[in-house]
Design goal:
alpha+beta; 4 domains; three-stranded antiparallel beta sheet; 43% helix; elongated
Length: 306
């Protein structure tokens, strides 16, 4: 009787599928193999000469030690093979994005294994990034390409934001492979993700510029009275202190309103009042506007000279 026939008999008796019975047989053989190898290693080690008389006996002991060590390593490998479960092979699957109670989107892939067992794989944003990198192996080396062409704002995102962006982008693009999803809707989802993270990136850099609109043509958002104004410079001084190093200067380039929350944000450049300090990208939200006062023309002229 062949090995396949033996497995078929085992499957019928145990009520298992052929694949499940083969896996059981494989684990059993691996366990026996490890046991036999360990017994052989012990037997080899037991043949060592306890009181070597000369170099020849010492050489025999060295050979026996090497052989016993090799057999034990083979036994360890067999045990690891026993502990490693067989790969799960599925015949059909479907995927869906579902929100978790905390609000994070989780990609759930439901599948049917060959033995008929239903399984589910859930991928959070970090896992989806890994999958995207596997599917697109050149992603790691694509920085120069995307920076030079379609996504010049990517370098302005930090590592966490990049992972979140790639995860959401991969989730949106997966709709292309679902028959029930309209391609136009998939493109809209991809565009929405890109637009959201472009705003975040340009806010990080402190240069939020509307496409095709020059800086001088930017209009202030409605109902922004009392907030920072584009083209103005503001100063912040700690209470009771006038030393330059304890002040901050903020040149406002743009004022925009958050597309979802509706709150105002001023974006521009800031540095300390100390001579020679460096300008850096900066922004302030509505709840961070207290304490800033607009600089007079005289103050601003002196600041420009510094």
């Amino acid at each position: 009787m062949s090995a396949r026939q033996d497995i078929a008999v085992l499957a019928r008796r145990a009520g298992l599928s052929i694949d499940e019975a083969a896996a059981v047989a494989g684990r059993t053989l691996a366990a026996h193999r490890a046991e036999v190898l360990r017994e052989a290693a012990d037997a080899v080690a037991g043949n060592r000469i306890s009181q070597p008389i000369g170099d020849a006996q010492e050489h025999v002991n060295n050979v026996l030690d090497i052989l016993a060590t090799h057999l034990r390593r083979l036994a360890d490998t067999a045990e690891r093979d026993e502990e490693t479960p067989p790969p799960l092979i599925v015949d059909r699957f479907d995927a869906a994005i579902e929100p978790e109670p905390e609000g994070d989107q989780v990609l759930t892939i439901g599948a049917i294994a060959r033995g008929g067992r239903p399984v589910a794989l859930q991928l959070d944003a970090r896992d989806r990034v890994k999958v995207a990198r596997w599917l697109l192996p050149d992603t790691e080396n694509a920085g120069a390409v995307v920076t030079s062409y379609g996504l010049p704002w990517l370098p302005w995102l930090d590592n966490d934001e990049l992972r979140e962006f790639l995860g959401e982008l991969a989730s949106a693009a997966l709709g292309y492979y679902r028959a029930e999803d309209d391609d136009v809707d998939v493109l809209r989802d991809v565009e929405r993700v890109c637009a959201t993270y472009r705003l975040a990136a340009e806010a990080n850099r402190g240069q939020l510029t509307a496409p095709g609109q020059a800086d001088a043509e930017q209009e202030e958002p409605e109902d922004s009275d009392g907030f920072f104004r584009p083209g103005r410079t503001y100063v912040y001084r700690q209470d009771g202190y006038t030393a330059p190093e304890l002040t901050a200067v903020f040149r406002v380039e743009h004022v925009t309103r958050h597309p979802a929350r509706g709150t105002l944000r001023a974006i521009g450049w800031s540095r300390s009042g100390a001579p020679g300090s460096t300008w850096r990208g900066f922004f302030r939200d509505e709840d961070q506007a207290d304490g800033w006062t607009e600089m007079t023309d005289t103050e601003q002229t002196g600041d420009d000279e510094r």
